Records
---
Amino acid sequence: MELYLNATSPYARVVRVVLLEKGLADAVTLQWCDPWADDDSLLAVNPVGRIPALVTDDGATLSESLLIAHYLDTLGDGEPVLPMARIEQVLHLAGLGQGLMDAAFTTVIARKHQGAETDDSVLAQRRWRAIQRILDRLEQEVAGHPIPVAVTLGEITVAVALDYLAFRLPEVTGSKKRPRLVTWHARITEGASFHQTRFA
Ligand SMILES: N[C@@H](CCC(=O)N[C@@H](CS)C(=O)NCC(=O)O)C(=O)O
């Protein structure tokens, strides 16, 4: 398999963490690319022009991080990242994580292409409020979750989104308002799959 990615995409990082958790790192060749430069090799496999894109051994291209994670969960020897016994809880958490990632990523891209003044726009303000609401909800919810022996797609998605906030929008996570979430995040990201995929 081939994975098209870069080192700063939170969506690609979710897939990389899943690959490591499933014991599939050696089954994949990493194809580093720049999706914002209309990279020819990426466009040849994924007309959407976005990363992550996974080309399977049968030559099919999969896009969308959560769909790729779903596929990878059918392979490999690691514990399931989508365990059926807890599927509602896992998908609920993954949705919050993906929503947080989307709001943070769109904010970063808007600033990059339109300048910091875009923060005052109606849409940027909506995203900002969504980020605060999601973080508040996570502070309530994850504190009550036991730290699992094997992380699921729910914890992976939320933890990567929190890392992305710290990486790109540190003013958001500087808050001392959510101490339980900070502790939970530190525990979840202790493992090798998070260390080996740090944003760079
Ligand atoms: N919903 C997608 C989002 C993927 C995405 O937005 N990737 C960004 C990089 S982090 C990208 O490739 N952007 C290039 C573009 O939009 O042209 C997923 O979960 O994989």
---
Amino acid sequence: MILIGQYDSPFVRRVAIALRLYGLPFEHRPWSTFGDAEKIAPHNPLQRVPTLVLDNGEAVIESTAILDYLDELAGSSKAMIAASGPDRRHGLRICALATGLADKGVSLLYERVLRKEQSQIWVERCEAQISGVLDVLEQERAAVATPYWFGAAIGHADIAVACALRFTGEAHPALFDAARYPALKAHAGACEALPVFQQVVQPLAPPKG
Ligand SMILES: N[C@@H](CCC(=O)N[C@@H](CS)C(=O)NCC(=O)O)C(=O)O
């Protein structure tokens, strides 16, 4: 398998961390969405990352679909999310909030670096959505006493949140005031201290306008 995309993307990073935690071997092509678009396009016409190219050449796109495939490869006993029921729904909700946070962070970053004149309406909307999600995640994480969101073992929700927080902090430092989000700060700190998070990391390199 080949994972396309740079680790400054919270989406690529969470996929790479899952691949490593599952012990699934893969090659990495750290292609940039803007600088290497012509290399990505034959695998994914959206020219987006992550893109996972399987050994038969088939490309799996969208991080959620990629993780669904990796869960299948890992098997239900190792999968980093409950197989069904309320815990699965709850886990998917936390993942959706985290990836939505990352989506809004990416949109806001592109607005800031790629547009000569920013749309104030869009900027304010993204900022409000980012703060709203951070407030909800903070409240929900503070209510959980276990080391990870769903107990003693790390799962997709933990990884998604930690990757989204790192990206938000790097892309929009003014929006992530650690004093306002102590539970999220502690969550991110615990995850980032793990060897796998330290191995799969890249400082943010935004596209140039
Ligand atoms: N929904 C997608 C989002 C992925 C995404 O936004 N990737 C960014 C890099 S962080 C990208 O490919 N940007 C280029 C573009 O959207 O044209 C996923 O979950 O895989």
---
Amino acid sequence: MILEYEHYGFMGAASGQEGIALVQHDRPDLVLLDIKMQGMDGMEVLRKLHAHDATLPVVMISGHGTTSTAVEATKSGAIDFLDKPLSSERVIVTVQNVLRQRDLNLENRELKGAIESKYEMVGDSAPLRAVLESVRRAAPTNATVLLLGESGVGKELVARTVHRNSPRAGQKFIQVNCAAIPEELIESELFGHEKGSFTGATEKQIGKFEQADQGTIFLDEVGDMSSRTQAKVLRVLQEQEVERLGSVRTITVDVRIIAATNTNLEEAIQRGEFREDLYFRLNVIPIVVPPLRERRDDIPLLVRHFAKRISVDHNLRPRRFDPKAMEALKRYHWRGNIRELRNTVERLMIMTTGETVQFEDLQPDIRGGAAASPPVGAPSGAPAEIPSGAPSAGTLREFKDTAERAYLVQKLRESDWNISKTAETIDTPRSNLYKKLEQYGIKQDVDG
Ligand SMILES: Nc1ncnc2c1ncn2[C@@H]1O[C@H](COP(=O)(O)OP(=O)(O)OP(=O)(O)O)[C@@H](O)[C@H]1O
Ligand SMILES: [Mg+2]
């Protein structure tokens, strides 16, 4: 009656046996379970319920003389207990708390899953497996790792994987993009400063090394540091201590260093741009992340992985990739590596109308033929402009449809409404063009 009055759905069972059957059939959010019952007692029912689903929240109800059993029950997995006689307030507060807790747990699990899938390393090629093997060996140690490889190969992802598999996984992972911070700010970014230590230092700032204490610092684009910063970083690596600008105090830090670069450091040393002693400090465990064109076997796996993620992230219908399209994606040289592949898949998912991404949907340069100039909006050419007449508001799909329609009408006019000719110029099968004309209700304009 208490629960019904509060508009909770509620089912009763007259025995433990009946209760177990009910739970398995109806999957309730929460179980209130008496201890003293005919036949199977509450403790046994609790064990059986949890053997089936350990996450099911169970609140024990203790009568006269069973309070200690109820306490015992919370130790063996019950989430809380209520004393008889039941007070309506206590019941309501307990139920509310348990349900809120359950929602938080669910949310937490979802977020964790989302983060994990975001940083999941996909691929099964021999070169990638070699990278993962190095990660497996390096991760449990405190050794400095130097990640080398072209832009977009996944160096950051590897750095995060090292951290997540290290004893420091529960601590911070602090990323510093050495190329993105202006030269005059990088020292205060890395080491921090005291208030008033220079003009503009209105507040004290904790540097990245200090923030990463006990955790991992990821020095990205390490080849782009000025010689002055290189000297300072070298000192931290040697002494494991930092000094904030404007302070005489040294602070001891315990950080694991992972560095990454896409420049050839040995050449930079030859040119006198990178300190050799810093290079030796960083190059303890070098891991070369190979370009995508050297591990083409990973491409289908990556395409499917991105397609799935993108359809979830953008609320798009899932799409399959036609074998011929997949072959072309596998053959392409991918100068921008995995980042470029990801962007391509994203674009295909948004721009393709059918259930399946066909070879014809690919950009001409990926298809490999000496194709016509890229259509308006194709990213290989000049950046797409918003066609006049297209709405700047509305959903992506509305925008896309309007833009596509305007583009088709224009092209048809240019070829005097000759379908075959238009299909050829815009490099799409005639059947597809017919489909589009019907879809958008395009008819030849009267004045031609
Ligand atoms: N093996 C992989 N599985 C899934 N996604 C990956 C993989 N490798 C890289 N990615 C994704 O590709 C993109 C580029 O990766 P990342 O930023 O790690 O590259 P990078 O080597 O640091 O590039 P840059 O040198 O340009 O900074 C990211 O979105 C990343 O999540
Ligand atoms: Mg990076």
---
Amino acid sequence: MSQLKYCQGPRCHTYDTKDRKRGPKDNKRNETRRRSSFYYMGGNVCSMQCQADWFDVYGSRALQHFGYLTQPKVLTQDNAWRKSYDWRSREDGGYQHYVYNHLTDERRNITEQQYDNDNIITQDGQLNI
Ligand SMILES: [Zn+2]
């Protein structure tokens, strides 16, 4: 059985929807949403609104905790690689997968197995074939 958890949105309880209502007629209240899973903010908030609310309240503190960028990140031809594919472009009706460098416009065909491999392009955008 999956564990129920609360939406971490600081204003979740202030949005007036049926599923947030609790209590008897003379003591009605709205509560923070509670679910087994959420789709937003890494599975921690119930909606884009609650995600935005969280960043409004905690975003700058999170930046202070994890550190601000103090110099620019740089995209060069070494880390400008992306994976993509052309839909049903091969003669047999299959997809043609490729890696593409969007600074140099270089394109190299790859196999579907290579495309499915998350390590072909590093988190940083470097080609790893
Ligand atoms: Zn929420």
